[in-house]
Amino acid sequence: MVGKIKRKTFSLLTAVIFSMSYVFSFIGQASAEETLTVQQAIENNSGTGTVEGYIVGHTTGTNNYDFEAPFGNDFNFALADKPDETDPAKILPVQLPSSFRGTFGLQTNPDIVGEKVRVTGSLGAYFTVPGLRSPTSIQFSDGSGGDPGEPEPPAVTGLRIHDIQGEGHVSPYKDQQVAGVKGIVTKIEGSSSFFIQDPEEDGNPNTSEAIYVYKKDHGLAVGDQVEVAGLVKEWVLDGYSEKLQTDLAMTEINATSIKKLASGLELPAPVVIGKDRIAPVQVIDNDQFGEFDPAEDGIDFYESLEGMRIGVDSPQVIGPQKYGEVPVIDSKVEGKVYSPQGGILLTKESANPERMFLLINRDFVAKAGDRFDGLVTGVVSYSFSNFKILVDQETLPELIEGELAEDQTSLVINDDKLTVATYNIENFSAATDAAKTSRIAESIINNLKTPDIIGLVEVQDNDGQKDSGSSDASQSYEALISEIAKQGGPTYSWTDIAPVYNQDGGAPGGNIRVGYLYNPDRVQLKDAPKGTATDSVAYENGDLTLNPGRIDPQNPIFEDTRKALAAEFEFNGEDIIVIANHFNSKGGDDPLFGKIQPPVLDSEAKRVEIAKVLNQFVAGIHAQDPDANVVVLGDLNDFEFSRPIEELKNGQLTNMIEMLPLEERFTYNYQGNSQVLDHILVSNHLADRTEADIVNINSLYMEEHGRASDHDPVIVQLDLNPQSQEKKCKGNDKEKQDNGKHLGHDKKGKACGYKKAG
């Protein structure tokens, strides 16, 4: 009996062990098939595994990687969990046997950087760091690629360039091999790339007749006729670090072979914009790429010309050259708003898709209002979030310079009126060169007519961007004050609150902040304790508790951003509170001509919240004293029609920018769009007693033209004594008839109770 029990026990134990071994075997198999992140593969670098990640570059040695083409060979690629990863500790080098190099080798296929792939192979040391060797399968995230030995489909033949381009932003032959594609070389872009164009059009304006070709050491020249074979790709060219997430791709052929058929041929005639094709002038995109509509959508229009030779006849320059790019339009459009100097204004209705960018060189000098004397030709490319025209330098016509008219405010110093200005002086410090310091001082004296109070923006500490550990800017203010006095202006006083070191954004070590210059012969800074970088100012018993004082500086919304600075002044017995600001920049917003439509404005939310904080502070002042005089000014980094500015006004303030004619509303030029970023707002009860002016001396010009900054200053003149104003308006019929305008000048805001100067 005992023997039977033992045998049964043994049999049962054997069955259990067998069952458990089966279960463990199954569990082990499931684990082996689990897809790992790159970080998991680095941390558990043994056995066989499948890893998913982004190709970020090429491994050149232990913890050394190339992230930009050209790459040295096809023997490996580097994998990471993020497409823009550069930290060696977060990168997995992957070996490429010969069977995978044709598709995944980076020397042959540099445009696959940024692509997501899934790799199965042996996890272990490679280049003496955690890696993956001897892969048995590599696939792109869309399933293309495959196992070694998988036969490639034959190259598609019989295609012309317009077939490859198709009607859209992505080629219908993307990731397919093509052969026998003919065209004439129209532009050489270094030793590894060029453009070709089919001289015979298909009659369809929605398909481009040209294409970008990548082939290392191609040895070709403009005018060569070639036959190309290779892989069709959508490749993002030069751009910012986030280009793979934001920018459009160019259709290209990654050539495996090129055959030269002829040389010295005549190039295809350029498509002349404004004559052969009319660019859209209102819409960049209104259907989220749902319909390819070059006749209506600017982003589709330029895509339909991708790589092609185009011409612009006598284009007008609409902004200064920057980074080698000159923004132009082919002609003015009826109903659009243009500045007297020749710029085009960004409006709520249109971002002006007709703007084009001539890529010339960084030494080229041009300003708004200049015009080219003849046909400018080049090929359409795309880089840094915009379509560009790669100009034919050898045939570039002469630039005819427009008149350089100096702008001066018409607001004249008046014993009974206070002048207040805002001026972004672009990273100014005591280390700024003497020429720029002189230009800023001259503009304050001659163009702004020495305002009583100036809210300065982008004042850096004494040593500029040197990492000294000190944020004191006393020498920076004194350098400017000294130069103003030297040139015959008043001897200003200054005040600010130095930020906590490197806590307010801007260039590291620079510690930019807002601050004030004020003329002590005309205004006085009211007596009160000066706040610190972390003290919060309040309004009690008719005055600021700190002077100057920061508004809610420890509010998380101000993290890594300049804090609002309130200061209280006295002018002719009247008190006035001025609040200087420099809102967070538009960095991080999607580009107008990017792959995300409509663009997502991530930075706006923070400006909205900052505006709410300021509006509540002003509302608190007005709740205690409805007649309190408040001015809010500075670089608000948004437009007069934007949500942040609406939140800032919100029943408390009037934006004096809106009192100016449309064609005069700009303080900055970005990519050819003249726009308002700098504002002055006043308490609503002051609006009818305030005149405004924007002095356009910088934004449309280069340093060669005498610009002192990249922003134009804004100035207002206020009558703080309502009885005096009422008496003057009642007793001066001539001024009432002129609607408060000074003779010979019509850049005015509200005056003498009139809503707007006409």
Automatic annotation (TrEMBL):
Alphabetical keyword list: Endonuclease, Hydrolase, Nuclease, Signal
Domain of life: Bacteria
Nuclease recorded as keyword: yes
GO molecular function, one term: endonuclease activity
Domain Endonuclease YhcR N-terminal per the UniProt entry, residue ranges: 36-140
Domain Endonuclease/exonuclease/phosphatase: 552-691
Entry keyword annotation includes Hydrolase: yes
Region (Disordered): 721-758
One Pfam family cited in the UniProt record for this chain: Exo_endo_phos_3
Biased composition annotated in UniProt, kind: Basic and acidic residues: 725-743
Stretch forming the signal peptide: 1-32
Name used for this protein in its record: Endonuclease
